[in-house]
Amino acid sequence: AALRDLIQRLPKAELHIHIEGTLEPELMFALAAKNGVELPYTDVEAARAARTNFTCLEDFLRMYAAATKVLITEDDFYRLAQQYLARAEAENIRAAEIFFDPQGHLARGVPLETVIRGLSRALAESPVEASLLLCVQREFGAKAAAEALTRAIPYLPKSVIIALGMDGSELGHPPRNFVLAYGEAAALRLHRVAHAGEEGGPSYVREALSLLGAERIDHGIRSLEDPALVAAMVKSQVPITLCPLSNLKLQVYKGQLEDRIRQVLASGMRVTINSDDPAYFGSYVSGNYEWVARIAGLGPDSLAALAANSFTSSFMPQVKQQEGE
Ligand code: ES4
Ligand code: ZN
User: What is the spatial distance between Cα 208 and Cα 203, in angstroms, rounded to a whole number?
Assistant: First the structure.
């Protein structure tokens, strides 16, 4: 309980959170009823139960995509982000860099403007220092990724979009396929991050760093399988955004995850702790810190160091100043 209190009190930044992954079953049902969308569950409890046994990333992505069908109006996106930010504030998260997946919404006929305006309104109202990262979904392909970013250009000057990210299905979609979109992002002066080394091996991390110019690696847990890569990442201190309970629930790591996390923490890489899709994996950020603290035997100093990493790894200059607070 003392550790839990400490984690709660620590000011934290969250750098790996998918806003669509914060859609709790209650809000999903409320929006489904309002919008006349049919759900394949009898009630909230059944929907929650369905979120407890994923076998792989693909399995999860199917359910995640199906749930987003309830998000239709600007206000739906506003409510989604508003709920997450209220939750984040309650956990003493001072800053959040939030992914959104425009391609899935566009494919359903929801305009980009609806998504960005709804999310931005919630961000503007929250005391949490927050910004958006536009994520391209790898399964839509390389051309579609570049197009999605191009479509967002009109909104960049007046929005809080600070970066391009890449998520979705990893295996078979190596980072080298997406150099066009990342080149476009660089030209637009956007920061660049990428999911890599979640289900894919260390070569995906290497490519994200060397070919896409990624400034932060999302997940990155499989970097450990390549000692030369780890050495380079220790030297450059490029941050990785670990999402331990996501990895556990999606069973993406085939060995002993606890051992792997302990090795990552001991490697000297700059590690941050995040929740990924908390409405699906059963825990928000604090739960992820608690799990890591338990399996790695971390005390107050190590936990404070992880929280400090979350600020120094942020892209928001005003947030970096909160480091060590
Ligand atoms: C995701 Cl856990 C994870 N991996 C890849 N893409 C994602 N999108 C939302 N959650
Ligand atoms: Zn993710």
Answer: 9
Ligand 2 centroid to 167 CA: how many Å? 6
Q: What pLDDT score does 98 carry?
A: 98
Ligand 1 pocket, mutate which of 133, 134, 195 (most atoms under 8 A from CB): 195
Q: What three-state secondary structure class fits 161? A: strand
Q: Please give the distance of CA 263 from its chain centroid, rounded to a whole number.
A: 22
Residue 64 alpha carbon, nearest atom of ligand 1: 9
Condensed to tens digits (0 to 9), the pLDDT of residues 253-278 reads: 888 999 999 999 999 999 999 999 99
Spatial distance between the Cα atoms of 56 and 309, rounded to a whole number of angstroms:
29
Residue type, 97: E
Say how many Å lie between the CA of residue 87 and the centre of ligand 1. 20
pTM of the predicted protein model: 0.97
Would you state the torsion angle of the CA atoms of residues 21, 25, 28, 32, taken in this order, to the nearest 10 degrees? 150
Catalytic residue annotation: 198
Domains and CATH numbers, the chain: 2-318 (3.20.20.140)
User: In whole angstroms, what is the distance from residue 62 CA to residue 129 CA?
Assistant: 31
> Which is the closest atom of ligand 1 to the Cα of 167?
6
